[in-house]
Backbone:
């Protein structure tokens, strides 16, 4: 899972490295587009996370038939979600770029990028839902391999289409968008092939269960909507933070985008262990062995802290060289180095936050991470606004909230999971049924 998340992150990093040769405006434009895409991906969690949790619990209970029926329904409802998302994305690409408060030259690049990526929302939706279903069943290798192929394809096509090599049109930043869309399309087809013909614990083979079922959708969304709201509100928070940085000029905005790219790499162990913990805790719920899920969460937390703390130390010591990998602009590096050092201090807390938020989701509790994590992120944004707008502080000072508030957020989710695991099954989601299809799924 860490490998898959690394590859997903590299998709954005490769785009940033390539378009960096087009100037600071191109970096800021593509970076702002990716921020919007994170918001869209957050919406997709309503189906992806809900389906993944239900599949993991069904697999833990040894009920492959129910796992397959949940998977079919998740894909159907994901496809139905993609149509309005694609239409809205195409129509609102230009207004979104203006709502972000971007400079005119950056807004044009952002709008062009979003028209392509959001117009192909079907591939984006189905890729995330299919990958989530496989991970819920304990198969993390197939999504990683699909991401590897997608990244290789994206890197090659982006290089050709951005600069117009091999007599192809030089599309600039839009070439990066078309390359990313093509990579996602191929990855989606590979994941569907794995779900259809692979010999795994979840399969979508068969004709039953494809008709949209509002009952099953309700079960998926009951778990998935809070997770989607969490990701959406967090991304909106970061988008508001981006708009705050945009008011300070293109160099500051480009530095912020590069710092986020570097920090997203350091967060990969935490995110990967968090996703793995969701699947393992979900399986322990299905098997009625919550002690095993709690033990897995503890192991994941320890390793995530070790990995992310190490990355934080590297960023503290080598902030300028790390930023220099993305840009040779001295002003961008000067603006970004203090930011990278400040947020590097929050790495251990982020590790615990990722893992224990994932553990709560495995229990079926997606609401507590929603409340804790979104409140924390928006408190960071508000603190940054007050420091910059109210006290006239520099853009660097606005990042202090990440180092100050992240430990509190981590402590809250750890406490909640520890308490829930200790009193299981009191106060949890409805028990997972034993072998045999759930009635609301058995009727097709």
Residues:
């Amino acid at each position: 899972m860490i490998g898959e998340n690394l590859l997903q992150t590299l998709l954005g990093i490769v785009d940033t490295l390539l378009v960096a040769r087009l100037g600071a405006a191109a970096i800021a434009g593509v970076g702002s587009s990716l921020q919007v895409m994170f918001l869209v991906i957050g919406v997709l969690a309503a189906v992806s996370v809900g389906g993944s949790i239900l599949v993991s619990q069904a697999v833990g209970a040894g009920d492959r038939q129910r796992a397959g029926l949940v998977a079919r329904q998740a894909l159907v409802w994901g496809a139905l979600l993609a149509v309005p998302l694609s239409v809205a994305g195409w129509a609102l690409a230009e207004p979104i770029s203006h709502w972000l408060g971007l400079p005119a030259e950056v807004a044009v690049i952002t709008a062009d990028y979003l028209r392509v990526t959001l117009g192909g929302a079907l591939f984006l939706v189905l890729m995330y839902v299919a990958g989530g279903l496989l991970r819920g069943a304990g198969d993390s290798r197939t999504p990683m391999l699909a991401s590897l192929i997608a990244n290789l394809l994206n890197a090659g096509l982006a290089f050709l289409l951005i600069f117009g090599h091999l007599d192809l049109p030089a599309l600039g930043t839009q070439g990066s968008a078309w390359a990313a869309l093509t990579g996602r399309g191929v990855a989606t087809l590979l994941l569907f092939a794995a779900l259809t013909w692979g010999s795994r614990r979840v399969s979508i083979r068969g004709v039953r269960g494809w008709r949209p079922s509002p009952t099953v959708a309700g079960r998926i969304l009951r778990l998935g909507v809070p997770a989607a709201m969490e990701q959406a509100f967090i991304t909106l928070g970061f988008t508001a933070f981006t708009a705050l940085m945009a008011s300070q000029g293109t160099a500051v905005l480009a530095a912020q985008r590069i710092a986020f790219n570097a920090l997203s790499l350091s967060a990969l162990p935490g995110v990967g262990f968090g996703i793995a913990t969701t699947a393992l805790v979900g399986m322990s719920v299905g098997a009625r062995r919550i002690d095993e899920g709690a033990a897995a969460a503890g192991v994941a937390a320890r390793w995530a802290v070790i990995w992310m703390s190490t990355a934080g130390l590297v960023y503290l010591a080598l902030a300028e060289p790390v930023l220099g990998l993305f840009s040779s602009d001295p002003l961008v590096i000067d603006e970004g180095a203090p930011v990278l050092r400040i947020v590097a201090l929050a790495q251990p807390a982020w590790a615990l936050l990722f893992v224990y938020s994932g553990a709560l989701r495995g229990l079926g509790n997606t609401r507590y991470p929603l409340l804790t994590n979104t409140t924390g992120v928006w408190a960071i944004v508000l603190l940054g606004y007050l420091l910059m707008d109210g006290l006239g502080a520099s853009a660097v000072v606005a990042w202090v909230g990440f180092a100050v508030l992240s430990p509190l957020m981590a402590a809250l989710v750890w406490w909640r999971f520890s308490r829930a695991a200790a009193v299981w099954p009191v106060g949890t989601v409805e028990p997972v049924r034993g072998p045999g299809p759930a009635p609301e799924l058995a009727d097709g």
Notes: The CA atoms of residues 196 and 205 lie 5 Å apart. Residues 426-444 have pLDDT under 50 and may be disordered. The chain has two domains: 1-227, 248-426. Residues 1-227 form one domain.
